[in-house]
């Protein structure tokens, strides 16, 4: 007869929670940051980071970070997205040159592992995500312009928001 001894530790609840505000604003053709953060804990390290998006007709992984480095997997985001490297706990996605096609549901997912004498295993997985919506403000705020160019607003709502108001979007060719 064999006996196996298993041990594990429970991490503080705040560690496994990714956080971010319920709404952010940005300007079309400008840049914005989709906030995502966690509280770093001693002897626990981030193993992977993944930012995904679901658009009207498609979905995929925008950004992936692991031991091999940072990878932008969707070609339409290459050269436009980044995540800080030198700020522990800050895994926010920075997007440059915002496009209308960037609107969708974004999710930030992080896995962690423990450090110690034994081989570390994944001890945490948490996901949080903002909903990103872009549209020209002239459709919502008549007369708004920025230095001769059509401007846009970027709204980012938490996936946990109980009610979302989604404004009517103009069809192709209407703006």
UniProtKB/TrEMBL annotation:
Domain Ig-like: from-to ranges: 12-111
Residues in the signal sequence: 1-21
Record-linked PROSITE patterns: IG_LIKE
SUPFAM superfamilies in alphabetical order: Immunoglobulin (SSF48726)
A GO molecular-function annotation: complement component C3b binding
Superkingdom, natural source: Eukaryota
Entry-linked InterPro entries: Ig-like_dom, Ig-like_dom_sf, Ig-like_fold, Ig_V-set, VSIG4
Gene Ontology BP terms: negative regulation of complement activation, alternative pathway; negative regulation of interleukin-2 production; negative regulation of macrophage activation; negative regulation of T cell proliferation
The entry's keywords: Signal
Protein name, entry field: Ig-like domain-containing protein
Species for this entry: Otus sunia (Oriental scops-owl)
